[in-house]
Amino acid sequence: MTTRTPIAIVGMSVFFPGARDLDSYWRNIVDGVDAITEVPAGRWDEEFYAPDGPKRADRVYCRRGGFVDQDTEFDLARFGIMPTSVAGTEPDQLIALQVAHQSIADAGGEAVLPADRQRVGVVLGRGGYLTPGLVRLDQRVRTANQVVRTLRELAPELDDARLEQVRAAFADQLGPEQPESAIGLVPNLAASRVANRLDLRGPAYTVDAACASSLVAVDHAVRELGAGRCDVMLAGGVHHCHDITLWSVFSQLGALSPSERIRPLHRDADGVLIGEGTGIVVLKRLADAERDGDRVYAVVSGTGVASDGRSSSLFNPDPGGQIRAVRQAWQAAGLDPAAPDAIGLLEAHGTATAAGDRAELTTVAEVFGPADGERAAIGSVKSNIGHTMPAAGIAGLIKAALAIHHQVLPPTLHCDDPNPALETTRFAPLAEARPWKAPQTGAPRRAGVNAFGFGGINAHVVLEQPATVPATRTAGLVVTEPERVLRLAAPDAAGLAALLDREDSAVLAAGLDERTAVDEPARLGIVDPTERRLTLARKAVLRGKPWRGRSDVWFSPSPLLGAAGGRTAFLFPGLEAEFEPRVTDLAAWLGQEWTLGSDARVGDVGRHGAAVFQLGRMLDTSLRRLGVVPDAVAGHSVGEWTAMACGGIHAADEVDAFLAGFDPDALQVPGAAFAVLGMTADEVLQVLGERTDVVLSHDNAPNQSMICGPEEAVGEIVLAMRARGVIGQVLPFRSGFHTPMLAPYLDPIRRAAQTYTLHPQTTPVWSATTVAPYPDEPEAVEELFVRHLLEPVRFRLMISAMYDAGFRAFVQLGAGQLGSLVDSTLSHQEHLTVSAHASARDSLAQLRRVVTALWVDGGSPDCVPLLATAGTGTTPAAAPAPSARAAAGRGVRLDLGGALVSLPQQARGVLSGAVGGPAVTGEPVLARLARAGGHHPVAAELSALLHETASVANELIGARAGRAAPAGRVAVPRGPVRPPARPAAVPAGAPAAPAVPAALRFGVEEMPYLLDHCFFRQRPDWPDDADRWPIVPATTVITRLMQVAEQAVPGRRAVAVHGVRLQKWIVAIPAVEVPLSVTRLTADRVEVVLEGTSRAIVELAPRYADPAEPWTFDPATERTPALRAEQLYTERWMFHGPRFQGVSELTAIGDHHVRGILTAPGAPGALMDNVGQLLGYWIMDRLTERTTVFPVGMDRITFHGAEPPAGERLECLIRITGVTDTTLVADMQLVHRGRVWAQFSGWADRRFDTDQGIRAVDRFPGANTLSTARPEGWSVVHERWPDLATRELIMRNMLGSAERQGYEELSPVRRRQWLLGRIAAKDAVRGLLWDEGAGDVYPAEVAVRNDDTGRPYARGVHGREVGDLVVSIAHRAETGVAIARRGPCGIDVEVVTERPRTTVAAACGAAELALFDATVAGSAEDEAVWFTRFWAAKEAVAKQRGTGLRGRPADYEVVAADDGRLRVVIEGAAHEVRVSRLTNPPGLPEREYVVAWTTGTDETGERHGH
């Protein structure tokens, strides 16, 4: 415990997954961004990932975590660090330096530091992990020599020279040895390097307290400030270790999440995901900060640190030590943590392990006490970025400080079903961000931050809002502009599609002025038209069906409003359970003051109702100002009062007066409770029967009703309905509104009704009581005003009646989800629903969406008042620190990887003939090793081990299954597979089974029908079937598993398959034998596992069970499909060949189902594969993105007879049961002659990212490219594929067999850019051939190779003639370029980066340097762009000459330059070089390039002497 003066946080900076700077970090937190991804290539090798493999230290069952790989380029030269020293330095030290620099910039720059640098220190939390630099050193020193020793022991005939060749080749892959950089591996240098480079002369050291390290560092820094030894301290944590050894430790402990999701505080939290990152804060004494006018994010008012001491285990967290640390911090702050309003936010340690969360919630309940009123928020940023180990505490502290600063309570992810232990605390997690209301007691907003370290070291920090907010030294003005809206209109959808069939820039340029009136009926509107939204719009328009609002895109082929005659209604919500008004900018635009809402407690009819009323009126005023005048208004529950005021019946000031003087307690039915049920009103009435204590209060929608009654009785009904599978929840309202129970308490309402002055309606008002417009007679209005509180809300019936009366557009004016009730009610009718309020943005911005939506559907709103807001908003804000993003790409990319080393190809022949005699040409290495086993026992054992390992370590493509096996399952021992085949084992005590094979063989020789299940299309006469990539269908694998089970248990047939998990494709060329294991679980169930690829439990029985009835679908919910079945194959929407083409008829399709006819093919598994094809059609038709899918599992398949023979027709019925961004789940029935033959439950597909370009190449590779052909004659490709699986698919589609072998021989780090270069080169060559009149040219027909000097060249393959041509390739970062010509050419691409002046001088001669300086001086472009042009031009000429720069760039002299051309002279010959600037497309890291290309000497042939 430390008692101290308050300490201010005046600056902060971060580098975490998905967030290179503070702004993006906060934005990701508030927006709920999940930055967890799969392990990037090069971090560790995929062979370590084996979720179903043996439990060994070198195998892990999880491969998802938080990574920063996309953002690891830093400009280190400004710190005086030379690029040549970076490779030997721990990357985390350099990252810490960058983040520390940014944190000081955020605090105001150098001015925040005292003149006496002895009074500035830095303390960083850092663990003693095997970090990337140490890994490389260990590989060089230990592993290289271990390889040599093992080879010497296995093959003593190897001489020292050859062993040294192996060692040297191994070491060479680690880069050059640099003894002077070894000091960079000293752990404490993470802090010392910061102090050295930034000239901080106070204390500088690291602390290691496991996961509590960074908060312990903050505690140390606070004590330095409190003792007066320092005036400014930097404190934080750094962790950039994803070495496989760390993963191995967590895997062996079972601490990693088997589901590969980190869910802190969730009921089913099953483990942690490892993250990485760095965060640093700048601390000053609060008094000093206020004196100096610093911006203060938050105040550190107390810290506490304690250990568990003696406890039952070092590995299990002990609440005792945690409680002591937390209480110490609050005691230091002079506060009672259990007092009301003591805390509004707790940033939990939240590891998402069962033991960790349980212990922490015990601590929280003990220290902070139970709930007493509204619950405070609890969360963990680990749900966004993973567990950043020693940096975890600072990640949480910065999140909490930003929450205080922005007065926003942030959400926590993946906590939809909170841990029950939270009920004993005063905290609850939030699913969405919401404003942080100031405590009513006047206390400051306050947060606590936990960090509990492995081994029992615990830390806690108390933060609070500063009592005063000094003027920030960096204050400035922020000018706001409305978001751009793209409007397009055409006579029909085809016309719109034509407008969109251009480059994004051309589409944007063609957008209509929002003030322009148009007559065309087909319209498109996009708010903030990003590349992704434009892609989505193209797909929606091509489908030709209305698209209303998802992703801020609206499209209508024909209008609902305007000339079409549809009417518009305003709908006002009532008391919503979620009420977070977002109206600050809107109120300023209207010139009004938003006075309510901060204390509008949910369920408080007075204050909550007043805020709802004011919000609705404000939105009504706003829309009418924009020319949106409703044809009627209506409300839900007490929202009808707002409708009455906006419709003119009541004067707004009278309603205000009533609500202001209203006592909420006067209108509550004691003991009453409401509950919502996922049932129709008729179903609810059937359940209630003759009961009078509980009544129907709301008929909201076809799938939602509400009941009201005594709390206990309502709770019982909810539980009973849940038991029947009905969703139900008790709500936080106690008013008894809309029920007869309210009658004794209605006097205040009656008096109000009698005192209100009634006016004629200016806008018709509809009643949800009578399901009709309000009457005109005053007496009838007064009566209905009271009736409406005693009778059910008939909202569903009212919406249906309004639709029948011609209303087509429904605009929600208020918070909540009222629009979803309209959508549910009108799910089968064309209509528009849009809300004028959204929780994600201020209502002023949301009005842009409303105006866009109404215009698209034929309305004529006036957007001019919104456009007039441009530039008027001025909000004081701290000037941002120099952009960390701007620094990206201006220097050295740090290598955070720790992958295994592969020897270069030329070094792999040094052992030829040393093991087992001479090598057989073309014989695989493992086969040679197996042959050697005949006379080397050690080699035999090694061969068996490697054969087994190889089957597991194939690179994983597609989805995977969890590692955990159901309890009680008996595992079969698995050993090396050696001929002869052995029977798979069954547990002791199980009935003896006949022999089953030890492995199953898959190949096109045995299974020729697989040639019709090839992923990739090649030229019709293509001789190499491997290039087509024949894959064993998942359903064929399932069929084989069933056959094996039947073989293992004779006399029984497979009647069902359970728990199918599909982990990896089985490739059929070359043929492969996959090890097989069979486990008899019970008398009728057998688990069959194809090692590393698939598994299932097969149920066996003497006979099939009787089937259920076939499903039926309401014809009103479906339509005729747009495609014919044969088009699926002729137009290449499906890749399947004739023996798998069984979809014969597309019968009907609906929003959640599809029907078709299948004709059973003859190939094993093909009939079930056709089911997946029909599901694929639904995905293509109904979804606009992520439409590439592959099956990953099935919960259950039940069979009710033998498989129908080939040629039989079956009806296939598919019901979609769930769709998320990454998965799709469906159930199916196959009906044969009126009887269900097979039923599938829980068929799960994984959805992959793709785009139109990739899909076009998949369908017609001979006529499409992944690259973009530039008019200047070169091709460029950007790495648009987001994951390893997609990259592997693209690689196989683009490369032929020999090229794929070369790709596999590369290290994982090199593969990405090498592939980009090959794609660009092939596309450039194919483009040249197309220009010369060639027909289809497939990527595999063009091979790009390198000659002995490394220069690329292209050759035709398998009969393709390309002639004499020259190819030049370049690639950088995420971009590859290439040029192909019938003559000399050269091309280069370089990232625009700032270079030291010494680099510029070294690359240029004296005259050239003078030209360079003069060019920069006369240009608006900076020196970085111009030097990149000069350098790229030199490289392009050197490539054209076939020599490369050879380390002598100054020999290539630029003698003339403008922004489009340069002239380069070498050896007296002048070369004209053209240059162009290029940027990464959206979705990739922000990066700018220069491309330079040349086609020989200049046109004059001029030679220059020197």
Automatic annotation (TrEMBL):
InterPro entries: 4-PPantetheinyl_Trfase_dom, 4-PPantetheinyl_Trfase_dom_sf, Ac_transferase_dom_sf, Acyl_transferase_dom, Acyl_Trfase/lysoPLipase, HotDog_dom_sf, Ketoacyl_synth_AS, Ketoacyl_synth_C
SMART domains reported in the protein's UniProt record: PKS_AT, PKS_KS
Organism annotation: Streptantibioticus silvisoli
CDD domains: PKS (cd00833)
Gene3D superfamilies assigned to the protein according to its UniProt record, in alphabetical order: 3.40.47.10, 4'-phosphopantetheinyl transferase domain, Malonyl-CoA ACP transacylase, ACP-binding, Malonyl-Coenzyme A Acyl Carrier Protein, domain 2, Polyketide synthase dehydratase
Designated name of the protein: Beta-ketoacyl synthase N-terminal-like domain-containing protein
Domain (Ketosynthase family 3 (KS3)): residue spans on this chain: 4-465
UniProt lineage: Bacteria, Bacillati, Actinomycetota, Actinomycetes, Kitasatosporales
Keyword Acyltransferase: yes
Alphabetized UniProt keyword annotations: Acyltransferase, Phosphopantetheine, Phosphoprotein, Transferase
